[in-house]
Amino acid sequence: MNAIxxxxxxxxxxxxxxxxxxxxxxxxxxxxxxxxxxxxxxxTTLVKILVGLLPPDGGSARLFGxxxxxxxxxxxxxxxxxxxxxxxxxxxxxVVELVRAHYPxxxxxxxxxxxxxxxxxxxxxxxxxxxxxxxxxxxALAFAxxxxxxxxxxxxxxxxxxxRRGLWQAIRRFAxxxxxxxxxxxxxxxxxxxxxxxxxxxxxxxxxxGTVAEIRDQVGLKRVAFEAETVPDLPGVVRVERxxxxxxxxxxxxxxxxxxxxxxxxPFRNLEVSPVRLEEAFLLLTGETGR
Amino acid sequence: xxxxxxxxxxxxxxLLRVPGFLIPTLVxxxxxxxxxxxxxxxxxxxxxxxxxxFMTFAVFTVVFFQFGVAVAQERENPxxxxxxxxxxxxxxxxxxxxxxxxxxxxxxxxxxxGVAAATTPIQPERAAPLALFAALLMGAIPMGLFxxxxxxxxxxxxxxxxxxxxxxxxSFLGGLWMPPEVLxxxxxRLSLYxxxxxxxxxxxxSAGGNPWPLRSALVLLAxxxxxxxxxxxxxxxxxx
Lengths: 291, 240
Hints:
The structure holds two protein chains of two kinds. Chain A has nine helices and 13 strands. By secondary structure, chain A is α/β, with parallel strands linked by helices. Chain A folds into two domains: about 5-215, 3-Layer(aba) Sandwich (Rossmann fold); about 220-275, no CATH class. Chain A has a six-stranded mixed β-sheet, sandwiched between helices. A four-stranded antiparallel β-sheet of chain A has the order 11-12-10-13, with helices on one face. In chain A, strands 2-1-4 form a three-stranded antiparallel β-sheet, with helices on one face. In chain A, helix 5 links the parallel strand 6 and strand 7 (about 180-185). Chain A starts with a strand and ends in a 5-residue tail after the last helix. Chain B is an all-alpha fold. Chain B has helices at about 1-15, 20-35, 45-75, 80-85, 90-120, 130-155, 155-175, 185-190, 195-205, 215-240. In chain B, helix 3 (about 45-75) packs antiparallel against helix 7, helix 3 (about 45-75) packs across helix 9 (about 195-205) and helix 6 (about 130-155) runs parallel beside helix 10 (about 215-240). The interface between A and B is medium-sized, with 27 and 25 residues.
């Protein structure tokens, strides 16, 4: 086991709400772990416990083998702040300097700001940054201390496609150079693009933990999609989705379903059989049918 | 240490860029002094005492609001939760805040002193400067703790109005605006129970080159302990 950070059986209750009901998982060296889950699933609580902001009610958290509440344990940890809170009267460069001052071997400010496209904004007050610029600054701050583990909380929420891809590239490069990442996200696409492993949290419990492929297998379904005016009731179909003329059926046995479609003479076009996408696996696992 | 200076620097430049902080803090006590006190000060003992009163008032303003209300706002702001998650020894940020507060408090007091020197017959050489500094500090600590306690006990929205409701009467009853002898009778009786009055007693004694009245020093220490306990209790309650 090569765990950079791990939690074991952690529990946390706020009043009557159980935010975490015994969750265990580990971030491995040089790997990207994505933490997925709907709002209120317990992602933020888990992250807060892992970075030492909250003590768990039960279970244990370890960061580089130490108690994360000890400041020394966090010397190789970088994390993103929430973008709403920057001190408005400080300039970009000053915020970076403040964060750098906490680390033994921080990143060169110019290198850091250039990497996230912020060097030409270094003298701007944070209050005057646009939403996307603020978001990029939050991520730059996670890397200001040249960490071994970066904890990125919803890193690309609200970014345009181009910035998002740029950022994914930066995160991938960090992982390729041996860095570990724990990232929380709403975007399944992001988890698919970046994560070695995915953990799905729902109502304080770990529903699934594994590679993207393993999560798909865990759901064990195939999607059969085609265009048709009407579809009869078919055996073995667990879910039907329709958008315009396109129909998507979820089933454990795609071969049998296709034979049945042919046998009943359903006039389908553009047939497509594929494994479920992570998004669908996610919805099926959490029982949130969405839409 | 590097982190301590980084926090100190960030606090100082952050505040220096906010005119809404600097102007009221540094100018209001001196302005009140110029309008309500300076024209009536004809002798050096009166000038020394009243100048010391307004210096105390200036320090009170900074520590009470800078600590009280600012701490309440920090508690709500996610940026400070982020700072707590950095590899930072727990004393660093409070120490930086205390030093920042004291620097501005002394600056505000110095402005009052400067204005007094220019407009009244004060005789600074009659005062005991070290004792005066110590006396200002003796009260700054409990009043800062009082501000923190209030801020932790109240919602951030209520903190500012309630702080004003406490701060103005305490300044008046403590004899910081006019000497306690000229307060109405009911106010004179209440005055003896306020921390500001005993703070004033120490400051006035030092301004005239006299030793501190022991009783007032003890009362201030008792207030310090009481406010520290309430603040600590409120802090724990907020964390749970």
